Amino acid sequence: MAEPTPEDSVGLVTPQVFRHRDSFALASGDTLPQFDLVYETYGALNESRSNAVLICHALSGNHHAAGFHAGEEGKPGWWDNCIGPGKPIDTNRFHVVSLNNLGGCHGSTGPTSEDPTTGQQYGPNFPTVTVEDWVRSQVLLADHLGIEKFAAVVGGSLGGMQALRWAIDQPERLHSAVLIASAAKLSAQNIAFNEIARQAISSDPRFHQGKYRELGENPDLGLMLARMIGHVTYLSDDGMRQKFGRELKSGQFGPGRDVEFQVESYLHHQGRSFSQRFDANTYILMTRALDYFDPARDFGDDLPAALAAARCKFCVISFSTDWRFSAARSKEIVNALISAGKNVASAIIDSEHGHDSFLLEIPRYFDVLSGYLNRIVMEIDDAP
Amino acid sequence: MAEPTPEDSVGLVTPQVFRHRDSFALASGDTLPQFDLVYETYGALNESRSNAVLICHALSGNHHAAGFHAGEEGKPGWWDNCIGPGKPIDTNRFHVVSLNNLGGCHGSTGPTSEDPTTGQQYGPNFPTVTVEDWVRSQVLLADHLGIEKFAAVVGGSLGGMQALRWAIDQPERLHSAVLIASAAKLSAQNIAFNEIARQAISSDPRFHQGKYRELGENPDLGLMLARMIGHVTYLSDDGMRQKFGRELKSGQFGPGRDVEFQVESYLHHQGRSFSQRFDANTYILMTRALDYFDPARDFGDDLPAALAAARCKFCVISFSTDWRFSAARSKEIVNALISAGKNVASAIIDSEHGHDSFLLEIPRYFDVLSGYLNRIVMEIDDAP
Q1: Interface pTM (ipTM) of the complex?
Q2: Cβ of B200 and A29 within 8 Å?
Q3: Is A169 inside any structural domain?
Q4: Are residues A179 and A211 in the same domain?
């Protein structure tokens, strides 16, 4: 018997699939002959179809953002604390759409899918995908769902980059963009961490130049290392100190060599678990999309010029101890939006949890988010 | 023909070897039947033998700190900018002693040495070595050299931890301890980065549980990854931005998948070069010594209590953008020294170069260091 569903949950959800059966040209110059996007929706679409919110996921996210899948009642979606009845992204008010991005490994067309032109799995031959491509594929999904204009496009980290790209590329199709713990482009340090993660994967001998699945293998150790690197950089030094300190996994310091700190054991566990559930080619593809993202590139590094096309309102949220996507990077976006004469609200949230904060229930963060989205509801209702 | 030696260089130097032929008990409970320490000296020891300065190296350092080796005239020692005639550690005034630590891979007894009890290379069976062990072995070297009391024990990063341990464990044998970009213990984040580096090495299939040399192999890829991780964390985000920005190695963004950023190419080069010259077992051993270091552990985490035994003066230097051993960690040491009633000078140096700053010629840093050491000379000369 299933466990009772909490009252503030969207309850049991069933993923759906949008099957795009036309060819799709990518920014890389490559073309996909067709693609699928797996998605979920929570809350009802209103009659005027004006209350849809698109959730864009980050590096390792997927479509299952809220509620539960049958048989997995103990495992809510990755943003279940934020999406649901009465929650900041309130499913009593909004129709929430959450998808797995193109190139993903949770049901959407990606490296683990079959290439219809060859009948073989794409594997390492899946083409490079950019944030622009994601936005264009999400527009096709919106068309399919009959959503002409999103009330909000919301994303954290890489998800915020998609929201920013939506604002620039599809100015008439969103009322607001909510960018959380994001950046207008990665820093050299961020690219370096991503490259080390990719190097960890590709130098695993079980990676086989990306053809591991054909050979019935998996680069577990490389993926584990990649996740460990990511994990440490998503936490703050202070947060780790509070969570782990220098506690030993067991026993005391002293003679012998088998001393292990709690933090080591935690990272091993996180890394191992990730390597079992995430595809290595997808990880490489997603980090490349992160690295390449830079909307100002085509405007001579002039971010306000890149943002000139945007028509939506913006909400930009960052966290005090996030050093991977620091508050300073959000401030760059805010300043560029102000220079470009856009409507922007912003908040820096005090949190000890680093980049991971965007996934956590932090009262002031959720207050800012729900306050902003509640105003959006009123604006939409007032619209002619 | 050798290139001319710069006037401010100590010139050609020849490493020497201290052969300790008694057994040496380690903090781990293990015993080494004997050991060698390779070292260099620069500048003359004065008649009263009071002007000796000990240089303690960091994670990947060695004994060759200044001058040149015959046949390698283009490659000065790792701290040649700081040690020499007229330089901050002035060889016209000081007799500088620089060694390769026990467990190292540059000539001192370590994993690549032969275990005299088995006739086999130690490899992964080399015992765990702690900072306390290093200090005790350095004391034996000082005895061998007839140095009763160092004018200063100087070190950056892990080297600073040795200087701190000298102050606590050998209070009568140093006049001053100079701790640069160091910490009284690693944070959980630092331990995590070290563990990821160790994991990268040990999960390389060519590591063979540390027995790679017996099998004629080397875990190049693991060492490369370990170095890449270290390197990124030793630089600052700002410093990397200034050095690399988001410049591409070649060509333009656009269709195709072979985009590589300058920072990736730089890290690959650094990593590959390191994997050719550093022993993997030594890397693991050195990072473990870093992790375990925690002089307050035996005093109920009371650092001032741990420092009570010290008699020397202290100089504590840190750098504004160092996030691996931040200025806040040096401040902890300074505050504890003040609480313990010790004589301490300290400076935080503005630098964009992160942890690597301690190896660079930064005018204010070198002014602080030379100013402090010049006063030490006067104090020693005034001593009865």
Answers
A1: 0.91
A2: no
A3: yes
A4: no
Is residue B256 within 8 A of residue A226, CB to CB? The reply is: no
Is B339 labeled as catalytic in the residue annotation? no
Cα diameter, chain A: 76
Q: Token digits for B340?
A: 């313990």
pLDDT band with cut points at 50, 70 and 90 for residue A133: very high
Which of B188, B237, B263 is nearest residue A263 as measured by Cβ atoms?
B188
Return d(Cα A287, Cα B259) in angstroms, integer.
13
- Interface A–B counts its CB contacts (< 8 A) at 148
Domain termination residue (choose one: A287, A321, A356): A287
Does the distance separating the beta carbons of A261 and B195 come in below 8 Å?
Answer: yes
Under 8 Å between Cβ of A79 and A8: no
Note whether B131 and B246 are same-domain residues. Answer: no
> Which chain A residues contact residue B267 at CB under 8 A?
192, 195-196
Among candidates A187, A237, A262 on the partner chain, residue whose Cβ is nearest the Cβ of B237: A187
- Which phi-psi region, left, alpha or beta, contains residue B278 (left: φ > 0; alpha: ψ -120 to 50)? beta
Return the structure tokens found at B245. 């920005």
Which position among A157, A176, A236, A346 bears the catalytic label?
A: A157
Q: What is the pLDDT of residues B287-300, one digit of tens each?
A: 999 999 999 999 99
Interface test with B, best of A125, A196, A241, A287 (most B CBs within 10 A): A196
Contact A267 B196 (CB under 8 A): yes
Q: Nearest-CA residue of chain B relative to A236?
A: B189
* Interface contact flag, B261 A195, Cβ < 8 Å: yes
Of A203, A240, A264, the CB nearest to B225: A203
Q: Do A332 and A240 share a domain, yes or no?
A: no
Query: Is residue A1, in this structure, part of any structural domain at all?
Result: no
Residue A9: inside a domain: no
Q: Which domain holds residue B206?
A: 193-287
**CB spacing of A127 vs B257 below 8 angstroms:** yes
pLDDT, tens digit only, all 384 positions of chain B: 455 678 889 999 999 999 999 999 999 999 999 999 999 999 999 999 999 999 999 999 999 999 999 998 889 999 999 999 999 999 999 999 999 999 999 999 999 999 999 999 999 999 999 999 999 999 999 999 999 999 999 999 999 999 999 999 999 999 999 999 999 999 999 999 999 999 999 999 999 999 999 999 999 999 999 999 999 999 999 899 988 888 887 666 665 545 688 898 899 999 999 999 999 999 999 999 999 999 999 999 999 999 999 999 999 999 999 999 999 999 999 999 999 999 999 999 999 999 999 999 999 999 999 999 999 988 887 654
Same domain, B280 and B299: no
Q: Would the CB atoms of B185 and A294 count as touching at under 8 Å?
A: no
**Whether A132 and A36 share a structural domain:** yes
Q: Considering the candidates B90, B204, B322, B356, report the single residue annotated as catalytic.
A: B322
At A1 the pLDDT is 44
Q: Is pLDDT at A337 greater than 80 in this prediction? A: yes
Question: Active site includes B269?
Answer: no
Mean pLDDT computed over every residue of chain B: 94
Residues A128 and A29 sit within 8 Å (Cβ to Cβ): no
Q: Is the pTM of this model over 0.80?
A: yes
**Contact by Cβ (8 Å): A88, A366:** yes
Which residue is catalytic, options A90, A279, A322, A356? A322
A10 within domain boundaries: no
- Map tokens 């969207």 to a residue: A10
Q: Which of A263, A287, A311 is the last residue of a domain?
A: A287
Q: How many domains does chain B have?
A: 2
Q: Do A245 and B188 touch (CB under 8 A)?
A: yes
Residue in chain A closest to B203 (alpha carbons) equals A221
Q: What is the model's pLDDT at position B248?
A: 80
For residue A235, give the chain B residue with the closest CA: B189
B157 a catalytic residue = yes
Beta-strand relationship, B24-25 and B31-32: antiparallel
Same structural domain for residues B282 and B306? no
Angle between helices A220-234 and A262-277 (to 10 degrees): 120
Among A34, A82, A29, residue whose Cα is nearest residue A57? A82
E strands of B160-256, at which residues?
176-180
Q: What is the pLDDT of residue B274?
A: 94
